[in-house]
């Protein structure tokens, strides 16, 4: 057993050294605040596609989908279908509009239509939602490394967190793009190897199907309400994820940005099916384990070298996901709060120092919370759900800028945060998912503000006509 663990640790250490070198080698491009947050040049569509894919097939989605597959069967893959639809619609509806703004933050785009108050509210909401997802990323990474390397899950979580923070603070956005390209490739290879092992150990798909309850192979087993909720959260999160926007604005042109979105959409669906089936296989092979360990325990039983590939793929995606989240949050804090309020004109060194420190602090906060996390997919889902509110505002901003009012936009964001989180904490009573509030509250607030605006206008016009 010692030989097995030693081999996995050795392969993992070599991989970490490789991606650390990749990040360190581009550090000169992170010598300014713009270079740190934007990468310093336009990137090819396939690189941006790999960046976005790596973030959304990160360890929280992999471990969480396998956990859901262990509990409810192959229908767990719908949460990846939702993400695929999000990228497809992003390419069709929003890529060109995002790029024409010449801005790289969602909050700055919303400010053009709804004012500074909405910009600050949107920025806070985005940072909060990204950090909620980061909690799930840390927790899932700790679960994998803890199970495979036979160390305490809390210790493993701290290790992966500190390494991830190091990557982003050294090389900035460019290092995130390059390392995540390699991470995405390794991650995909790793889950294919894991599925091959799982099906072999299970006696094949046909035997697995005959041995488990039929509900485990029901394509809609999680229920229509859950699937719709995943669609709302998945599509909404793609439309309004800060590092996705940072990615698509760094492609050479609109066509390249759309291609990047379509590449990711095509790769998402098979990934979801594979990971859900891994969870189903674990339900047959290891029925007595906790559902959160469905994927980690399977990896722990794989041959050492193939297990190493899965581990470095999961860990690499974890680091990439955390790096992208922290750099996106840091970018928002820099552009929306620090520079307007504290930066002196022409003082870019202070901006660079601020964002480096910020990425460390933002990386540490969810790391502490992750030590107490268990329902990984549920936590990640909350982070995505919250961004559905911003997706509503972005769609209205681009396609119906005269609908509603700035006050309605601010009210919608604030009430959505309160309602969505409160409903989530309450355990989604009556089977109503919290994502419905993230979508419905801002729509309702903007509709009410529009009606009041029309009523006020009509009342004013009637008063003016009186003799």
Automatic annotation (TrEMBL):
<comment type="similarity">
    <text>Belongs to the sodium:solute symporter (SSF) (TC 2.A.21) family.</text>
</comment>
<feature type="transmembrane region" description="Helical">
    <location>
        <begin position="76"/>
        <end position="96"/>
    </location>
</feature>
<feature type="transmembrane region" description="Helical">
    <location>
        <begin position="354"/>
        <end position="373"/>
    </location>
</feature>
<keyword id="KW-1133">Transmembrane helix</keyword>
<feature type="transmembrane region" description="Helical">
    <location>
        <begin position="305"/>
        <end position="334"/>
    </location>
</feature>
<feature type="transmembrane region" description="Helical">
    <location>
        <begin position="261"/>
        <end position="285"/>
    </location>
</feature>
<keyword id="KW-0812">Transmembrane</keyword>
<dbReference type="GO" id="GO:0022857">
    <property type="term" value="F:transmembrane transporter activity"/>
</dbReference>
<feature type="transmembrane region" description="Helical">
    <location>
        <begin position="436"/>
        <end position="455"/>
    </location>
</feature>
<feature type="transmembrane region" description="Helical">
    <location>
        <begin position="46"/>
        <end position="64"/>
    </location>
</feature>
<dbReference type="InterPro" id="IPR038377">
    <property type="entry name" value="Na/Glc_symporter_sf"/>
</dbReference>
<feature type="transmembrane region" description="Helical">
    <location>
        <begin position="412"/>
        <end position="430"/>
    </location>
</feature>
<feature type="transmembrane region" description="Helical">
    <location>
        <begin position="379"/>
        <end position="400"/>
    </location>
</feature>
<feature type="transmembrane region" description="Helical">
    <location>
        <begin position="227"/>
        <end position="249"/>
    </location>
</feature>
<dbReference type="GO" id="GO:0005886">
    <property type="term" value="C:plasma membrane"/>
</dbReference>
<feature type="transmembrane region" description="Helical">
    <location>
        <begin position="117"/>
        <end position="139"/>
    </location>
</feature>
<feature type="transmembrane region" description="Helical">
    <location>
        <begin position="185"/>
        <end position="207"/>
    </location>
</feature>
<keyword id="KW-0472">Membrane</keyword>
<feature type="transmembrane region" description="Helical">
    <location>
        <begin position="6"/>
        <end position="26"/>
    </location>
</feature>
<dbReference type="InterPro" id="IPR050277">
    <property type="entry name" value="Sodium:Solute_Symporter"/>
</dbReference>
<keyword id="KW-0813">Transport</keyword>
<dbReference type="Pfam" id="PF00474">
    <property type="entry name" value="SSF"/>
</dbReference>
<feature type="transmembrane region" description="Helical">
    <location>
        <begin position="154"/>
        <end position="173"/>
    </location>
</feature>
<dbReference type="InterPro" id="IPR001734">
    <property type="entry name" value="Na/solute_symporter"/>
</dbReference>
<protein>
    <submittedName>
        <fullName>Cation/acetate symporter ActP</fullName>
    </submittedName>
</protein>
